[in-house]
Automatic annotation (TrEMBL):
UniProt function note: Catalyzes the reversible phosphorylation of UMP to UDP.
Cellular location(s): Cytoplasm
Protein name from the UniProt record: Uridylate kinase
Keywords for this protein: ATP-binding, Cytoplasm, Kinase, Nucleotide-binding, Pyrimidine biosynthesis, Transferase
CDD domains, per the entry: AAK_UMPK-PyrH-Ec
One GO biological process term: 'de novo' CTP biosynthetic process
Residues binding UMP, per UniProt: 53, 73, 134-141
Lineage: Bacteria, Pseudomonadati, Bacteroidota, Chitinophagia, Chitinophagales
Major enzyme class: transferase
GO molecular function, one term: UMP kinase activity
UniProt main location, coarse: cytoplasm
PANTHER family linked to this entry: URIDYLATE KINASE, URIDYLATE KINASE PUMPKIN, CHLOROPLASTIC
Length: 237
């Protein structure tokens, strides 16, 4: 059976890389994610990755850090490059060819972000990791994921999380909450379901980019998603 998607953008949160730690990186999680990604590359899927930075630094709370918002946001973007280097390293250990491109120039560790070059890498079967978010403060890595996915013409954004999809209510608070298999952008907005921040979400909606929210921590799930099995929640028109 052929994969359902030819090109995907996988969005991973920084926090997922902590595993059971309170901070930083868990080598077990990195190795597991690398193996999951390798399994879809083996199916011929072209994979781009945007990774968050929340496990190292989140810039948004000036009140707690005393660091002004824009400055903190740049620090958060640098954190995503550290995570990108970590996942790159884990994937290369697993035998997957990768390139890291950064929206903030740091030529000793990453290529600068060049859209056409990224697409060329993908065509050659390399996994492309996009670091430093959008390169702009006041944005999130979800927005970077949506933006890059649209730019490189990915068919779908795969949002790997710790929950297995979008629910009618918070399943941890409401035992009657049920999971959507499929939902429209409009319904997410009218029901006030938080899939991504509004900037990221509207970018997907306006460009008709489907989002699949799924549990990245269940081994084999990523492959099921790209093979078209019913996993998680699909958000589309
Ligand atoms: N960030 C930013 N612009 C971007 C992407 C990220 O300023 O385009 C900063 C922002 O401060 C954010 C931090 O980088 O809090 C880490 O990213 P995010 O919180 O999205 O990571 P995640 O929650 O996925 O770990």
């Amino acid at each position: 059976m052929a994969a359902k998607f030819k090109r995907v953008l996988l969005k991973l949160s920084g926090e997922s890389l902590m595993g059971d730690n309170a901070f930083g990186l868990d080598p077990k999680v990195l190795a597991q994610y690398a193996a999951e990604i390798k399994s879809i590359v083996a199916e011929g899927v072209e994979v781009a990755i945007v990774i968050g930075g929340g496990n190292i630094y989140r810039g948004m709370n000036e009140a707690d850090t005393g660091i002004e918002r824009a400055q903190g946001d740049y620090m958060g973007m640098l954190a995503t490059v550290i995570n990108g280097m970590a996942i790159q390293s884990a994937m290369e250990k697993a035998g997957v060819y990768t390139r890291l491109q950064s929206a903030i120039k740091m030529e000793s560790v990453a290529e600068p972000y060049i859209r056409r070059r990224a697409m060329r890498h993908l065509e050659k079967g390399r996994v492309v990791i996009f670091g430093a978010g959008t390169g702009n403060p006041y944005f999130t890595t979800d927005t970077a994921g949506s933006l890059r996915a649209i730019e490189i013409k990915a068919e779908v954004i795969l949002k790997g999380t710790r929950v297995d999809g979008i629910y009618t209510a918070d399943p941890e608070k409401d035992p009657t909450a049920t999971k959507y298999e499929q939902i429209s952008y409009q319904e997410c907005i009218s029901k006030n379901l938080k899939v991504m921040d509004m900037t990221a979400f509207t970018l997907c909606m306006e460009n008709n980019l489907p989002i699949i929210v799924f549990d990245m921590n269940t081994p084999g799930n990523l492959k099921k998603v790209v093979m078209g099995e019913q996993v998680g929640t699909l958000v589309s028109k």
